[in-house]
Design goal:
alpha/beta, 4-stranded antiparallel β-sheet, 15 helices, globular
């Protein structure tokens, strides 16, 4: 008993308690961490891009329980360097070409520091007026940069909100669309509602439909064709809708994509919207990756027809130099979101909300609490300006064109689909000549399955080298290597080096045929 009392007094003695938000300690540790990250970025090319650790590695390195007494920040940073960094896949590396980019910037990072430092919970206007009003302003700024119709902006009849990810944006809009349609046909008919996308649409659509209670068999993934660059055709959509109507189902939601994940295909927004409008469907345009590029006048045509849609979103944390998470969503009818997503608990009541003169963003999203994401987007827009942001994006498109030219200059390879933005989809051709040094013979192989295995081996060899990191997709049975330019530190020399690595690995593999 005596020993128990000793420990109790020791832990509750105010002399032993250090204020966790001491300004001077914050200043000291903050400088140390900024220096640590600056050195990380400076030396990032020294690390293998793809983490080389095995599953469970960290459990062997860290203690079995949390420390009972404080540890100095120096010790913690030492462990980050030695234990955490080896387990990081370096998304900010200039040799990172996998998935889609998660581009960072000084402004984006420092905006995140400010946002986190203020640590406000801006669920409604009164909880932090600046957080709400700044978000509305930057969403209108960005909408203007994209030349969105006034019907999507606060300065018009719509409005914008910053969600966490596209998954949330699709779920929110699909929920609003569901409730709109059910208010017309009766809530008991939810089992008849049908969602439409293509076989290239992100899996977020099916997940959102599942969460929203849509019958899984009523989610349509309409087949696309390689000959049409994997675009969703209006004719195929019309045919799918007609078949559903004939069986008594109710079309209510369409999700075309600008820049699909597999190949950056672009669905024809205008013609698809025309088909959807014939049936009173909600159209949400998912431009998660490519939407940012549409601030460039020469690329704006990819969202032509957007005036026919009900909502539009893109991820500023992908290719707009703003740190995760930051999904920008615009809607023509904010009231539809609010009607589906609002909460009115007594503790939230206040005069500002009752006046209907303010935006309460809690009613535009799934969660109640929300971060001050607008701060980092505001810093990015102000620190770089529209002209510089456009040039950043153009530089990535130019580097992707350079890589495309390098692929096309080697007759062993092909570019599988047309390049729309800053990603090149390529592979070793299924019909190729392999030269074997040992017997000085050549052989020709024409076998898609074999070609798929060969390309898979090539990608694994490249990635395991640590020199760069790419990912793949499979479209209509074809294994494709994706080369996505977009890391902020990438320069032309890195792209040229990447192609040399691909060629060297291909040489080594083909010589063993």
């Amino acid at each position: 008993m005596g020993s128990h009392g000793f420990f109790y007094n020791q832990e509750t003695n105010s002399a032993n308690i250090v204020n966790p938000l001491n300004p001077e300690e914050f200043r000291k540790q903050g400088h140390m961490i900024i220096d640590f990250l600056a050195d990380y970025y400076k030396n990032i090319e020294n690390y293998p891009v793809l983490s080389q650790v095995e599953p469970g590695y960290l459990q062997k390195l860290l203690p079995k329980s949390a420390p009972n007494v404080p540890e100095p920040i120096e010790t913690i940073l030492h462990d980050i360097q030695n234990h955490i960094i080896p387990g990081i896949t370096h998304w900010q590396s200039p040799n990172y070409y996998a998935y889609f980019p998660s581009s960072g910037s000084v402004a984006g990072f420092l905006g995140e520091v400010l946002s986190t430092g203020f640590n406000v919970v801006g669920f409604n206007w009164i909880s932090s007026p600046a957080a709400t009003e700044l978000e509305a302003i930057v969403m209108d700024w960005l909408g203007q940069m994209l030349e969105l119709p006034q019907s999507f902006l606060f300065s018009g009849t719509g409005g914008g909100v910053i969600q966490g990810t596209t998954c949330e944006a699709i779920l929110c809009t699909l929920t609003a669309a569901r409730d709109q349609m059910l208010s017309k046909i009766g809530r008991k008919k939810i089992g008849k509602l049908v969602v439409y996308g293509s076989d290239q649409t992100h899996s977020a659509l099916a997940k959102a439909a599942k969460i929203a209670g849509i019958e899984p068999n009523n989610v349509r993934a309409i087949k696309t064709m390689k000959s049409a660059s994997f675009e969703l055709s209006p004719e195929s959509l019309r045919r799918a809708i007609r078949l559903d109507l004939e069986t008594g189902l109710v079309p209510f939601f369409l999700c075309p994509t600008v820049g699909t994940t597999s190949t950056t295909a672009v669905d024809p927004i205008g013609p698809l919207c025309e088909v959807a409008q014939e049936h009173g469907m909600w159209v949400h345009v998912d431009a998660a990756y490519a939407g940012s590029a549409c601030i460039c006048p020469e690329l704006r045509h990819f969202i032509d027809g957007i005036e026919g849609a009900n909502s539009f979103s893109f991820n500023a944390h992908k290719w707009f130099f703003t740190t995760l998470d930051c999904c920008c969503l615009w809607v023509k009818d904010p009231g539809a979101l609010i009607k589906s997503l609002s909460t009115n608990a007594e503790f939230l009541n206040n005069k500002a909300s009752d006046s209907k003169q303010v935006v309460d963003y809690k009613d535009w999203q799934i969660t109640l609490s929300r971060r001050f994401r607008a701060m980092k987007l505001w810093l990015v827009l102000r620190s770089y300006g529209v002209a510089t942001l456009r040039n950043f994006l153009r530089s990535h498109v130019k580097m992707a064109k350079r890589f495309q030219q390098l692929v096309e200059s080697d007759n062993r390879f092909e570019v599988v689909v047309p390049r729309n933005f800053a990603m090149v989809c390529f592979r070793i051709l299924p019909t190729k000549i392999g030269y074997n040094k040992s017997d000085h013979r050549t052989r020709v192989v024409d076998d898609e399955e074999y070609a798929n295995e060969l390309n898979k081996t090539l990608l694994e060899s490249v990635n395991s080298s640590g020199q760069l990191y790419m990912t793949h997709t499979v479209v209509h049975g074809i294994y494709v290597i994706r080369f996505a330019v977009g890391a902020s530190l990438t320069e032309d020399k890195h792209v040229i080096k990447a192609w040399k690595v691909v060629q060297e690995m291909a040489d080594a593999i083909l010589e063993t045929m």
